[in-house]
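Hey, I'm writing a tutorial for new members on how sequence and structure tokens pair up, and I'd like a real worked example in the thread rather than a made-up one. If someone can provide the structure for the chain below, I'll link this post from the tutorial.
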Amino acid sequence: MKSIMLPKSQACVCMILIPVGPEYFPECLNLIKDKNLYNEALKLYPPNSQQYKDISIAYGEHLLQEHLCEPAGLVFARCGAHEKALSAFLACGSWQQALCVAAQLHLTKDQLAGLGRTLAGKLAEQRKHGDAATVLEQYAQLE
């Protein structure tokens, strides 16, 4: 793979990301990760593009590494990576967000009940007993 020369300023780097062409996108994505240019790079691609989704997933994974699970879930959800979003929301006990994303995944009734029990357990661990009771009552009903 041919290496491209990049200016030192982050703003200049972002300005060249689109014109270099799709054959250089993997190298650009590595640059985005290395220089933490996620927000700047996302502004340069249309939200429905594969590049936008790839950058968003990389950004969400970066946020997870920083233990920022809820923002990671939002980034994943925004780009349509619903399973990753659900996992991130589960990790932080964000039950409303997790259930919203679960609706996008078209879970079966049994899967939704299992998710409700998992969420309730996570919430109980976080001493959010009222939320845990709400989730159990509304989503984890036994048949």
